Automatic annotation (TrEMBL):
Residues 237-278 are annotated as: Disordered. Its cofactor is Mg(2+). Residues 9-149 form the tRNAHis guanylyltransferase catalytic domain. Keywords: GTP-binding, Magnesium, Metal-binding, Nucleotide-binding, Nucleotidyltransferase, Transferase, tRNA processing. Adds a GMP to the 5'-end of tRNA(His) after transcription and RNase P cleavage. The lineage of its organism: Eukaryota, Fungi, Dikarya, Ascomycota, Pezizomycotina. Residues 153-297 form the Thg1 C-terminal domain. Belongs to the tRNA(His) guanylyltransferase family. GO terms for molecular function: GTP binding; magnesium ion binding; tRNA guanylyltransferase activity. This is tRNA(His) guanylyltransferase. The chain holds residues 63 to 371 of 374 of the full protein. Its EC number is 2.7.7.79.
Length: 309
């Protein structure tokens, strides 16, 4: 390597312009399946929710958390997943292109790698039998990074995604019930639902099809949260031990110059290498769990303070 390092061509590296994401902010990386309207049709996803596809998304997200220990949690619905990195994250020196490309390609790799486990198919014998769904085209995902400075912003971000999931799923459930069970054309179903409120869709599902929307699976209505759980499982005896990562980042006061008005500037106290190594080991050991619960209210976050700590 040393011999190659100083070639006359190396100056081209200076054209690189790596963007570093704003320090001391939460980073959320959101990926989304490219043209999954087409992909889901090609792969015969069941409408409106194919549980195999959702479980494959969740498994790929969990494997991504397993691979990248800096990620605290992820939230997913449909063909998207959002990954949360803590404010003190220094992975890849917070270089945006490194973070975005590594997360999205790790996830995509797992999605393809795990496909057969969830969809079956794959080998010639299975294809012969018409079993499962073998992968017919390579799926791909886009990904973007956004920095959020406050806990409130992060909470609102996840609330936005979950509220969106609810609105979309109620619409899709009403739409596909009209089409599949009601024998209504897609165009007519679309027209019938135009301008309706949530209550109208609930009523339509109940009065015409006997479906109580609230009894639909939680995974469909609430999406999926995948996170590191530092608590010791109840069945192992000890009640939820206090997790080590609950303490918020410490803040130190900067003293003003002599004679100057004492000014308080928030300066994050960065963690030492050994502290970070300790946390990485803990993160590696923590269980990764998947739940379909409300993340708009306070309860989820209050019970898992290490996620935003
Ligand atoms: P883009 O490339 O802009 O994201 P897209 O076709 O992927 O285009 P989205 O808004 O991301 O558009 O919509 C995702 C599509 O994938 C929806 O049409 C949805 O019906 C389908 N889809 C995703 N997951 C499932 C699933 N589990 N079951 C059935 N359909 C799904
Ligand atoms: P990073 O994540 O920082 O890129 P890395 O281990 O991938 O770490 P690289 O500098 O990218 O580091 O080096 C790629 C490595 O992969 C080299 O060690 C090289 O020996 C190995 N490698 C890549 N392609 C081949 C190949 N075709 N045959 C054998 N080894 C290969
Ligand atoms: Mg290389
Ligand atoms: Mg999109
Ligand atoms: Mg998409
Ligand atoms: Mg989408
Ligand atoms: Mg490499």
């Amino acid at each position: 390597k040393a011999g190659m390092a100083n070639s006359k061509y190396e100056y081209t590296r200076t054209f690189e312009d790596p963007r570093r994401l704003l320090p001391n902010t939460y980073i959320i990386l959101r990926l989304d399946g490219r043209s999954f309207s087409t992909f889901s049709a090609t792969q015969n996803f069941k409408k409106p929710n194919d549980p195999r596809a959702l479980q494959l998304m969740n498994a790929s997200a969990a494997a991504t958390l397993r691979t990248l220990t800096d990620i605290r949690m992820a939230y997913g619905v449909s063909d998207e997943f959002s990954f949360l990195l803590p404010r003190e994250c220094t992975l890849f020196d917070r270089r945006e292109d490194k973070l975005v490309s590594t997360v999205v390609s790790t996830f995509t790799g797992w999605y393809v790698f795990l496909w057969q486990r969830y969809f079956g198919g794959g080998d010639a014998a299975a294809a012969e039998e018409g079993e499962g769904e073998s992968l017919r085209a390579p799926p791909s995902f886009d990904c973007r990074a956004v920095c959020y400075p406050s806990v409130g912003n992060v909470r609102d971000y996840f609330a936005w995604r979950q509220a969106d999931a609810h609105v979309n799923n109620l619409f899709n459930t009403a739409f596909w019930t009209l089409v599949i069970r009601g024998g209504v054309s897609r165009r007519d179903a679309e027209a019938e639902l135009r301008g309706t409120f949530a209550a109208d869709k609930n009523e339509l599902l109940f009065s015409r099809f006997g479906i109580n929307y609230n009894n639909e699976p939680e995974m469909y209505r609430k999406g999926s949260v995948v996170y590191r759980d530092y608590r010791i499982p109840e069945d192992e005896g000890a009640a939820a031990a206090e997790p080590t990562l609950t303490e918020p980042l410490e803040w130190s006061e900067r003293e003003g110059e002599e004679g100057e008005e004492r000014e308080t500037t928030a300066v994050p106290k960065f963690k030492s290498k050994t502290q970070k190594e300790k946390e990485r080991k803990l993160a590696k050991k923590a269980r990764i769990v998947t739940e379909h619960v409300d993340i708009i209210g306070d309860e989820f976050w209050q019970k898992r303070p290490w996620l935003l700590g």
